[in-house]
Every structure is written in structure tokens, then in C-alpha cells.
From TrEMBL:
This is Bahd acyltransferase dcr. Keywords: Acyltransferase, Transferase. InterPro entries: CAT-like_dom_sf, Sec_Metabolite_Acyltrans. GO terms for molecular function: acyltransferase activity. It comes from the Eukaryota. It comes from Nicotiana attenuata.
Amino acid sequence: MPCSAMSKASGAVTLVSKCTIFPSKKSSIPDLKLSVSDLPMLSVHYIQKGCLFTRPSFSITHLISLLKLSLSQTLTHFPPLAGRLLTDQDGYVYISCNDAGVDFVHATATNIFIRDVIGFLDVPDHVKEFFPFDRTVSYQGHFSPLLAVQVTELADGVFIGCAVNHSVTDGTSFWNFFNTFAEVSRSVKRITRQPNFTRNSIFISNAVLKLPANGPEVTFNVDAPLRERIFSFSRESIQRLKAKTNNQKWNFDEEINIVELMAKQSNDPLIQLSRTEKAAVNSTAEISSFQSLCALLWRAVTRARKFPSSKMTTFRMAVNCRHRLQSKLDPLYFGNAIQSIPTYTSAGDVLSHDLHWCAEQLNKNVKAHDNVMVRKFVEDWEKDPRCFPLGNFDGAMLTMGSSPRFPMYDNDFGWGRPVAIRSGRANKFDGKISAFPGREGGGSVDLEVVLSPETMNGLELDTEFMQYVSGEY
């Protein structure tokens, strides 16, 4: 793992050193063909997500050594991340599992405290410096590492940020890697969730995605003025919202959540429900708490954007297709297995109907996205192979990514759970929303909301929305 010392300052962050980390064992995995879910991501930025921690009791020098060793060992379980992209003479793109290595960056920002990361209304700009591969397009994985880890030492904490090529992983695969990295750092004897690298599903296609000679570019304006804020919703607030959406009398006790809990479990391929439990899930017409939250945001942002009633709005939700296919993909399938479901409704309909109606539109589309629909999406792409058009092209779009089900706070590297989750500048545009679990668990949710300054100002004044935000009611 050759290292080079650095003293380059970038705003609030100073880069100390940069290393190449190689897997501790050589890969035995063959080249992996990119799927119809991977290929569209060649035009989007690397995923940038990370965890903020309190400072460990041991020295930073020891921490850096520990994480380098743990990363090397973790890569033996995730050989594709240590490889590079390769396009063959027929235009097919592969991950070459060639052990070329990943970047490891050590940086300091000892003038920044934990409170300077989480204590502001808007996410401060210096958080963007905690991540490598800033605004790097995934196609560049032909020439650059597919993964980079940056460890930034703060005055009273540590931030561990990862940047991973989006044509190689989706959120499920990303957090499985991050969780495993943390497990290995805690010296577990056997990792909990071994990734599956099989490539024998309908997502593997003979269709060729034709790309420009210099590769694709992102499809949104990376320099547009934006505000980014984390809105937190407690379990109690989420349950109040869900009860209102379903026209129920709100009673904050353990029973109100049992049907939804089973519904969530029924969508988790790692959890097996009994026939009786499945029947209870299928017999209910309840709108989920997350769909209620999405509808709440959709209404508030539509109001803030001040559209005429005839303006068509779009709410996109990324869904995991692993359990929707027949036969199902392995729940730990490594790669992208996501599709983006759009729901179209006029601004007038969004605002003239109640919360239940808006949530019901989302609910219907998510429920309808079954095996047949997943395959139709694949067939449609094969007829017209293209990169994913990420952005807000008509000013009336919202795009929901990530998931409050991802085990982000399970990343204990040996001295405690994260204090907060933050992301970098990657794939941020007006209307991009990311859902995180709340740190307190129990069904709490954090929404990372990116909007134009004018729209964010309007959202913050929206009484229907803000009454559910923690600390705002």
C-alpha cells in the first residue's frame, strides 16, 4: 500500500496522505458484466456517503493503520470494488476484478467540531470536503479506482467518507460494503452478509449502450444554486402523520405499528413471515409511514414552487427489485438492482386532494411494480439503451433516493455508533431527496432535502410540513 505524504489544503480540510490499498488476497472472481440496471448509472456521479463519529480513545495514527488493514481485508470479500471498468470490442462494459486497488485518503480538519457538522440549519459546505472523487462521473471508473475512502480527523471527532462508482453498486450493495468494513474493523471472525456476485438474471442483457468517445456527462447543472437541509422526523411524529394519512385516530402505542412492521418485513427478503402474518399484510389497505412522508413533502414542495394548477408534477421513487423478480435475486446480490418509478399528477390535483389521496397515488405505483413491471422496464431499456436522465428538467420533479431501511447506524468501527450520516456533493440538484434512518431508530426518519433557495424558503414556511419536523411543533 504505497503512500504519499500531502500537505495540500482545500478550504477547511487539509489532505495529509493518500495511499493505494490492495485486497489482502488475490481475487478469484471473473470479470462481471454490467447489467441493464448498472449501465444507466455510467453518467451519474460516484455515490458519496459517510458517517460522523466521536473521536476514539486511541490515537489517530492507530486508527489510520487499523482502517487501512481492515479495508484491505474487506476488499477480499468485495473484489469488484478493487477493480476497474473495461469496455470490450463489442461495446459491453465489465468490472475487471484485477486487484488494481482503491484510494485511501487521510485528511485533517482540526478546526471543525462535531457541532459544526450537525449544528446548522443547512448542511455546511465543508461537509462536501469530507469525500473523495468530488463530482467524478462513474464512467471514469475505466481509468480511476471504483472506490475511495477518506478519513477526516476533526477537533473532537472523525468522519469516514466513502465514494463508490454508481455503475458498480446501488444503496443496498454500498451499505453492505460499509457495514462489512466496520465489522472487519471490529475484528469479527466471520462477516455477517457475504455479497453475491452471480450474473444470471434478466438484468444481464445483450443490448449495447453506445457512449460518446469521451464518455457520458451528467444530465443536470452541477453549478445551480442550491440549499441542502436535513429534516428529522421522530417515531412519534411519523406515526401521527401515518394516522392522519389513513384517517385513523392517532394512539401512540405499540399496536398501531404492528401491521406496517409486518409489511416492511414482507418486503425484506431476509425475513420470512408466516401465512397468517402475510394475510394480515395483504388484507390491509393502509398507506405506509414512508409513503405518507413522501406525500407530505410532495404537497409542501408543490405549494412552495407556486405552480399553476395545470402544471404536471413528478415524484420519482427508487425501488429495490431484488425481491420483486420471479425468480428472486439473492438479497445480497452485488450491483445495481433498482428501478425508478415515476408518479405523475398535476399540481392542482396534488393540492386539491388530501394527504391520503397523494400517498395513495405513490402506494398504487409501488405495489404495481411487480415481476411483470420489472421485466417491462428491462425490455423497454433494451429497445432504447440510454443513460439515466437524472435531474429536474421541467422544474416540477422530486426524486427520492436511498432508504430509511438501510443499516447506516450499524457502522460501529470499534468505538461506538455514528453520530450522524451525511453525503457529499454527488448527484445533487433541485428536487433531490435522500431518506436516512433517524439515529434514535424505532421508525424515525431523516430526509436530506436539496432544493433551490426560493423553494426551500417556501418549504420552511409550510405549516402542514413543518408541524411534523422534530423540534418544530
